[in-house]
Design a protein that fits this description.
- The chain is mainly β.
- The strands form three sheets. The protein has a six-stranded antiparallel barrel with strand order 9-12-11-10-13-14.
- The protein folds into three domains: 72 residues, no CATH class; 70 residues, Adenine nucleotide alpha hydrolases-like domains (SH3 type barrels, Roll), CATH 2.30.30; 89 residues, Translation factors (Elongation Factor Tu (Ef-tu), domain 3, Beta Barrel), CATH 2.40.30.
- The longest helix has 10 residues.
- The chain is built from five helices and 14 strands.
- The mean pLDDT is 90.
Length: 263
């Protein structure tokens, strides 16, 4: 959108994201939206100083009821439109049909493998699953099992116990920072899914476009391919950057998780 706006000669791009931009000491800061339930700063981690200089987020200082009231006052037909519950650009919310039409390889069936590599079932297409998923697997192994990883190269889903989801470190690629000249190491709060909680960790910049996160304590169900957004540890509303999760480093499960896994 920003590239298109610049091509059209527009000086400012306004979007409906629930986020805020503030300028402090000559530097632009990207903050969470006032309505924390609708905050969308997580998806804006790739914006830099030049981008933020030309961005407006008009609803970032409003909560959703205030936004709807203002839209109704202005006579906008979307004022009473229901919130999107899934992918907003998919007609009628039929994600399965959209995937089959536009990403056919993501709808191809394949093996479900247990932690020993044995085939224990068949999945209905990789795009229907995510790391940490328990429901809808269509298998019964005598104990709760979860999707622990997805292997596109073999079109396979791997499942295991809850403790197998424990992750201690992330490798991040395509990383971007709101302030590119920040420190090489810093304590941050990491959000690895939209509207998810944050987890404390240590950020280390490894090379241009590449960094790592070492969590203060293990976290669960982190999916490679998803975004990870980094927030300031001292100012939790301030986004400092983010990137794409390239890989994870597993961690031994905590005693509680081990006990849960044993049932």
């Amino acid at each position: 959108l920003m590239d298109r706006a610049r091509a059209l000669g527009a000086h400012v791009l306004a979007t409906g994201h629930y986020a805020r931009v503030r300028k402090r000491n000559g530097t632009y800061r990207l903050l969470r939206g006032v309505d924390t339930n609708k905050d969308q700063s997580y998806v804006l981690w790739m914006l830099n100083q030049e981008d933020l200089r030309h961005c407006l987020f008009p609803v970032g200082d409003l909560d959703k009821p205030q936004t709807r009231a203002l839209a109704a006052e202005l006579g906008l037909r979307t004022a009473a439109k229901p919130d999107s519950q899934d992918i907003c650009f998919v007609p009628d919310g039929d994600v399965a049909s959209y995937i089959t039409e536009h990403i056919p390889e993501g709808a191809q069936s394949g093996p479900i493998r247990d932690r020993d590599g044995r085939v224990v079932g068949e999945h209905r297409g990789l795009a229907r699953y995510t790391v940490g998923q328990r429901k809808g697997l269509g298998i019964s192994l005598g104990e709760p099992v979860f999707v622990t990883s997805i292997d596109p190269s073999e079109n396979a889903i791997n499942v295991g116990r809850r403790g197998d989801l424990s992750v201690s470190e992330l490798v991040i690629e395509e990383s971007s920072f709101v302030q590119p000249d920040g420190p090489s190491e810093v304590d941050v709060l990491v959000q690895h899914r939209a509207h998810g909680d944050t987890s404390p960790g240590r950020l280390r910049r490894r090379a241009p476009g590449r960094c790592s996160i070492i969590f203060s304590s293990p976290v669960e169900a982190v999916a490679p391919g998803q975004s990870a957004a980094f927030y300031d540890r001292l100012r939790p509303d301030e986004l400092i950057g983010g990137g794409i999760i390239a890989s994870t480093v597993s961690s031994p499960p905590s005693p509680k998780l081990a006990a849960d896994a044993r049932g």
